[in-house]
Amino acid sequence: MTTIYDSKKRRPIFLEELMGVIHYRDLIFQLVRRDIVTRYKRSALGIAWTMLNPLGMMIVLTLVFSNIFHSIHQYPAYVLGGLIAWNFFSQTTAASMTLNVWGGSLLHRIYLPRSSFTVSAIGTGLVNLVFSIPPLVIIMLIIGTPLRWTILFLPYSILLLAAFALGIGLLLSSWATSFPDVVEMYQVALMAWMYLTPIIYPQDIIPVTYRLFLVDLNPMYYLIQIFRLPIYEGILPPLHVLMIGTGLALITFLLGWTVFSKNADKLNYRI
Amino acid sequence: MIDMQPPSSIPIILLQAVSVCYRLPKEPIGSFKEYVIQFLQNKVRYHDFWALREIDLEILQGETFGIIGPNGAGKSTMLKVIARVLVPSSGRVRVQGKVAPLLELGAGFHPELTGRENIFLNGTLLGHKHREVNDRLEQILEFAQVDGFVDSPLRTYSSGMVARLGFAVATAWEPEILILDETLAVGDESFRAKCSSRLEEFQTKGTTTLLVTHDMGLAQSKCKRAALLYQGRLQHIGPVEEVVRTYRERFSV
Predict the structure, then answer these.
(1) A26 contact B CB<8A
(2) Choosing among B84, B124, B130, B182, which should be mutated to test the A contact, i.e. which has the most A CBs within 10 A?
(3) I need a surface site. Which of A25, A31, A237, B126 has the fewest CB within 10 A?
(4) How much is the pTM?
C-alpha cells in the first residue's frame, strides 16, 4: 500500500497528530526504552535507582520534618505518596521539553508526529512510577499503615496524572522549542510549585488567606489528593475532589493537544 | 524541447504553486528572556523571507531528478517540503509513497546504546515497525560490517562504523522516494562504492531519486532531468545538459 501525503487533503490537525502517534507507537516504545536503558546503563544499581530516589528523599524529609508536623501520623507514607505523584509530574513535563528540544534537529530532516516525544516522556514516567510503588508498599508495611482495597483505585489516579502531565508537557514544549531557556525557567517554577503545594507538609498549616491559591486553585493539589488518599488514608477521594481533578486533567489534556498540534506545522519554520 | 521519454508518466511528486515564507525576526532572538525584553521595548520586528516562490514541479516515478542552484537558492527548503518536514505556506504538495531521507547519516543515534539497540531506535524513527526492523536486522548488520561490535555501545565505534550503520539502516528498505542531499563522502573507498551500488540498485528497481548537488558532473552522469533554483524560484526545468548550461551561464564557475 502506498502512502499518499497531500498537503491540501489533511485530516483535522489534532486527529492527524493522534493518528500519527498511534502509527509511530513502536518509535515511542523505543524512545521510552532508550530513556530507561541509558539512564541506568552505567550505574551499578541500575533500575533500582528509580526506587531508591524517592525513598532517599522520603528518609531525609522524615528525619527533618516528622517532629515538626505532628498532625501527620505515619509521615513517611504521607510524604512518599505525595512525592511519587509529584515526581511523576515534574519529571515527565521537564523531560518532554528537553526531548522536544533534542528532537527539533531531527524534525528538520524527517517527518515524525511531533507529539511522540512528549508521549514517550509520559511513558518513561509511567515506568518509573510503577517501579516506585513496591517500595511505597514496603514502607507502609514496615511502619504499619494499613493497606486497603482502595489502592486498586490508583490506576485511575495515575491516568489523571498522566493526562494532566501530557497536557502541560505539550503546552510547555511548543514554547520551549522556540525558546530553550524556558526549560531552565520551568525548573525554578517547578520548585516553587512543589513547595507551595501541600506535598511534604499537611494542608491544614496553610493560612486561610493563601488557601484559595495554594489549595483551591492548584490543580496539583487535587491530583495529588486523588493519588495519595487511596494509599495513605485508605479512602476514596471525596467526590468534589475527584470531579475537579478529572475535569482539570481532561481540559488540560485537550487544550495541550490542540494547541500543540496547531503549532506543530509552524515550529519547523523557526530556524 | 527534446523528447525525454520518462520512465513512467505518473507524477510521484507534485508541487503546485508552492511557496514557503519564513517570518524572521529582524534582530535574532535567542531566548525567551530576550524576547520579553525586546517585546517590552517594542523592538520585535519581523521580515518575511520567501525561501520558495510559486514552485510548480512534477517528478515522475523512477526518475533520478537533479536539483541544482547556488547556496541559499532554496534547495533544502524544497526537499523539506517534499519530505513533509515543512508544510508550505501556500500551494499544494502531493507525494505518493514513502520518502527516505539520507541527510545526515546516524542522526538520532544514542552513544550509550548498543549498535543493535540503535538499529531499532533509528529504524522506528524512520517510521518502520519493530517487526520490520527485526526482519531486516541480519541484512543491516551484514551491510554495516560492524562484526563483534553489535552489542557494544555506539561510543566505542569509529566514525566510519557509525556512518556505515546509519547508511545501512536508512537504506535497508527500498524507498519509493530517495532524497540525496550532497554527495556521500563518508567512509573509505570500498564503503563508498558499496553505497553507490546500493543506490544504483534502488534506481534500477524504480526508486525515484532527488539528487541535490553542486557537482555538475555528478548531476549530468546520474540524472536525465534537473531543475535550477535561484532565489526561491525555479529558473529552468528540463534535460540536465540544458539546465547545467543555464547554471554555468548564469553563475559562471
Answers:
(1) yes
(2) B124
(3) A25
(4) 0.89
